[in-house]
Amino acid sequence: MLDFNFCVSTNFIFGRNTQEQVGSVAASYGVKNVMLVYDSGDFLKTSGLLDTVLNSLEGSGLKVTTLTGVLPNPRLGLVRQGVALGRENQVEMVIALGGGSTIDTAKAIAAGIPYKGDVWDYFSNVMGAHPVFEALPIGVILTIAATGSESSAGCMITNEEGWLKYGCGGPALRPAFAIMNPEITCSLPAYQTACGIADMFTHVTERYFTNTPDTYVIDGMAEGLMRSLVEAGPRLMKDLTNYDYRAEIMWAGTVAHNDTVGVGREQDWATHDLSYELSALYDLTHGAAVSIMLYAWMKYVYRHDISRFARYAKYVFDVDTAACTPEEAALAGIEKTADFFRSLGVPLHLSEADIDDSRFEEMAEKALAHRETVGFFVPLNKEQIMELYRMAL
Q1: What is the model's pLDDT at position 127?
Q2: Helix 243-257 and helix 216-238: axis angle, to 10°?
Q3: How many other β-carbons are positioned within 10 Å of the β-carbon of residue 13?
Q4: What is the pLDDT of residues 248-288, one digit of tens each?
Q5: Cα(282)–Cα(333) distance, rounded to whole angstroms?
Q6: Residue 252: which of 310, 159, 180, 323 has the closest Cα?
Q7: Residue range 123-144: average pLDDT?
Q8: Strands 11-14, 177-180: pairing kind
Q9: Concatenated DSSP letters of 238-273
C-alpha cells in the first residue's frame, strides 16, 4: 500500500425530508449571502422542491442569488456567468440543487469567485494538475445518485471553445455539506437511474485495477461495493420507487467516488479519460460513455494482470475460479460485467449510440493533450487509444 493523505470533510445529512434543513445547515457556517445553482428542468418546480429549498434558505435569514440553466456535460459559459454574478452579489457560499452537472458547475463557480484569473486556468485533461486550494464553501442538495460529486474533490466542465471536457481537483472542492434524501430520486426515469449506477461502478473499477500490490483492505472494500451495486442495481431497475434500494444506491454513489476505496494505490482513469471525448463531441450521457469504454478497456488490457481480473471475477461475480484457468475466469468476469450493464439497460458499444470511427484520431489527440499516455494500469498511447475505440464499436 502507498502512503496517502485522506480527509473527507463533508457533513452528510441523509434521509427523508432532509432538504428542509438546508437553511439552518447553511446558516451554521456563518454566511449571509448564498448562491443557489440548479438546472432548468421542470421537476424542481413541479415537485415543489425548489420552493422548499428557497423557503428554507430565506427563512433562515439568508439572501439568495439564483442561477439556473445547467446542462448535462456542464458548460464553461454558465460557470463564468455564475462567477460574475457571485462577485457582484458578494456571495459567500454556493449551493447546488441537482446532480453531478449542477454540483460541478457550483464547484467551479465557488473556485472562480475568489480567483484573480480565469477559472478555466484550473482545468486540465490531467485531473488535479492545477489544484484548487481556495474556494467558497459548497453545499449540495442531491437529486440524482450518480457521480459522487457531493463529496468528491473534483469536477468536470466542458469548454464550448474546442469542446474540451476537462477537470480540476483539490481539497477546497469537497462540499462542506451534502443533503441526501433518497425519496427525491424515486421519480427519476429508468435510463437516468441506470446511467448513474454504471458511473458509480466505473468509479470503483478505476481505483480497483491497479499495479500497486498488497492493498487487501481496500480491495475488499471495493469488491464489496461493486458486489452491492451488482445486487441492488438490477433490483432497483425493477422497482424504481423503492426507497430502500434508492438509499443503497445513493450512498454507494457517494462512497464510490470520494476516494474511500481509492487510497493507498495507483489509480487508472483511462475509462473516464476516453469517455470524456465521447461526451464532449457527441454529448453522450456520461454513464453510457463509461459503460461502453469500460467493457472495451477490460477486453483490451486484461492480459496485463490476469490474476487481478480473475480475483475481480471471483469476489464481485462469484465466478468459480477453482474450476477454470485464470484467463477463463478473467474473461468470465468481463462478460459478467457486460451482463450487469445489460441488466441496467446501458449501452456496451459505440454503434448503439450511433457513433462511428470518423473522429477517433481527433478524440485520441484530445485525450493525449499535455501528456504522452492515458491511464496507469496500462498506459495507452495514440495508436492504442484508437485501437481501443475501434474495439468499442
Answers
A1: 77
A2: 150
A3: 17
A4: 999 999 999 999 999 999 999 999 999 999 999 999 999 99
A5: 30
A6: 180
A7: 92
A8: parallel
A9: H-TT-HHHHHHHHHHHHHHHTTTTTTTS----HHHH
